[in-house]
């Protein structure tokens, strides 16, 4: 047995095998397993590469002297030669001790090592070390990217549940000043799912770290952008302008506490963007029913409907409201992904709200009016409970929906469906009354369920709103039908 402090050094570029070894460093050939296999073939032996804990990295396992391996791994010696039982072995340290690229390259063959074979082992160890360092550097880069992505998502989830203080604390370390604002806009950029990572990188580039850019945890096609400034919004429009098949939906400016509301607005605007020639839309560009209601009546009714939640602790109340708001916009599964909780947690919170409010979310009209109340409540200042006499005199849903401006808007919106000979208005009216269930609607109309779905889908471009996907678009159409009297009002405790 023999040991040395340093492996054999030298340059042998003129030797054919050295040229072949250099070829392994080309971008197309950087594979440790391929290099190890090349060395085994070149020295007519068996080669193994293992890390400093003995885990196999490449090659074929062979019996090695544990003491020798330990001396090499700890840095006591750099290389060693061993002979016994008709076998000849060379062991060379790869990387520095205790480094990420540390390990041992061992070669075993039936005949003694000549100068050529010894040089091949030494130089191959150097190449392997370079490849391991490059792999570790790449892996570290990927880990950093994942950690940064997870932090962005965590900040968004904190904003979604109105925990602004914690969101600012998390953001301050990596993006100082990003959330030093009282309000922001939310944008949702959509592309094909396989293009999303490239879209994300482009959004990060054009916003120059002046916006919170998040890979949507619920929709594989979406990138969510929370931006306090207008410049980022303009840059996002340039992104969709040069990327075919990309769409942009934006919210109105909202306080950070209304990030969940702004997100719902952005998704709603995204649906409209699919019908726009420039593939972009902003929520404020469209007339919405709540703007046509008497503010005093709307606020009075909202306070009365949501009063059962006022007795809860502030944190619990905010958690239930934020979860229900998202749960009414999206499926329980997608809401859970956005909030970072389980879908059972989302359902449990929504069931608790149902019980407190005395409503059933299986009723589509009930979902629509509770959604209206929740979005109205976000802009209201919490106050003390009203006296019993005032509670009895509070406005009812009929009062809120009876304004002439709202009725005119409702008749105009629903009236668009009359131009279709298939009587889309009757189908949609029946579908809403059936809770959005196509099978029950088909039974009531005496048609096939697929026909119902086709009618509802045909109504979407006419109304410029997504219906089958649910959410704000659908609830606006339901409110229009409630305002015109096409469907009966839901049963509410308030």
Automatic annotation (TrEMBL):
InterPro entries cross-referenced by the UniProt entry: CdaR-like_regulators, PucR_C-HTH_dom, PucR_C-HTH_sf
Segments traversing the membrane: none
Record domain PucR C-terminal helix-turn-helix: where: 333-375, 424-468
Protein name per the record: Helix-turn-helix domain-containing protein
Phylogenetic placement of the source organism: Bacteria, Bacillati, Actinomycetota, Actinomycetes, Kitasatosporales
């Amino acid at each position: 047995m023999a040991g040395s402090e340093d492996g054999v050094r030298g340059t042998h570029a003129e030797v054919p095998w050295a040229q072949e070894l250099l070829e392994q460093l080309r971008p197309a050939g950087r594979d440790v397993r391929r290099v190890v296999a090349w060395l085994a073939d070149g020295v007519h032996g068996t080669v193994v590469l293992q890390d400093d804990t003995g885990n196999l990295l490449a090659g074929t396992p062979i019996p090695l002297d544990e003491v020798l391996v330990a001396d090499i791994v700890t840095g006591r010696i750099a290389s060693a030669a061993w002979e016994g039982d008709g076998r000849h072995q060379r062991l060379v340290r790869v990387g520095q001790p205790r480094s990420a690229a540390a390990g041992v390259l061992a070669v075993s063959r039936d005949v003694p090592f000549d100068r050529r074979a010894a040089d091949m082992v030494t130089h191959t160890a150097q190449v392997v070390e370079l490849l391991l360092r490059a792999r570790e550097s790449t892996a570290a880069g990927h880990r950093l990217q994942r950690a940064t992505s997870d932090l962005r998502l965590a900040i968004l989830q904190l904003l979604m549940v109105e925990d602004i203080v914690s969101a600012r604390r998390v953001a301050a370390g990596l993006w100082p000043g990003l959330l030093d604002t009282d309000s922001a806009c939310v944008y949702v950029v959509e592309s094909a799912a396989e293009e999303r990572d490239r879209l994300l990188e482009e959004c990060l580039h054009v916003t120059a770290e002046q916006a919170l850019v998040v890979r949507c945890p619920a929709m594989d096609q979406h990138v969510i952008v929370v931006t306090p400034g207008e410049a980022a919004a303009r840059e996002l429009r340039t992104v969709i302008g040069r990327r075919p098949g990309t769409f942009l939906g934006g919210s109105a400016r909202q306080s950070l506490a209304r990030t969940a509301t702004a997100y719902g607005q952005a998704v709603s605007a995204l649906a409209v963007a699919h019908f726009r020639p420039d593939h972009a839309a902003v929520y404020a560009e469209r007339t919405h029913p709540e703007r046509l209601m008497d503010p005093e009546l709307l606020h009075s009714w909202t306070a009365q409907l949501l009063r059962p939640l006022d007795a809860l602790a502030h944190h619990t109340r905010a958690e239930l409201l934020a979860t229900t708001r998202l749960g009414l916009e999206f499926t329980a599964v997608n809401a859970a992904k956005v909030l970072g909780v389980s879908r059972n947690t989302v359902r449990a919170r929504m069931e608790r709200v149902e019980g407190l409010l005395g409503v059933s979310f299986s009723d589509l009209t009930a979902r629509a009016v509770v959604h209206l109340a929740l979005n109205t409540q976000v802009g209201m200042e919490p106050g003390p409970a009203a006296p019993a006499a005032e509670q009895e005199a509070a406005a009812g849903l009929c009062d809120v929906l009876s304004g002439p401006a709202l009725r005119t808007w409702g008749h105009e919106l629903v009236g668009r469906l009359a131009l279709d000979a298939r009587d889309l208005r009757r189908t949609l009216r029946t579908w809403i009354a059936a809770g959005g269930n196509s099978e029950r609607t088909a039974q009531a109309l005496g048609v096939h369920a697929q026909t119902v779905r086709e009618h509802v889908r045909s109504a979407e471009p006419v109304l410029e709103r997504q219906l089958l996907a649910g959410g704000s678009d659908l609830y606006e159409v339901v409110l229009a039908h409630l305002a015109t009297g096409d469907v009966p009002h839901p049963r509410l405790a308030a």
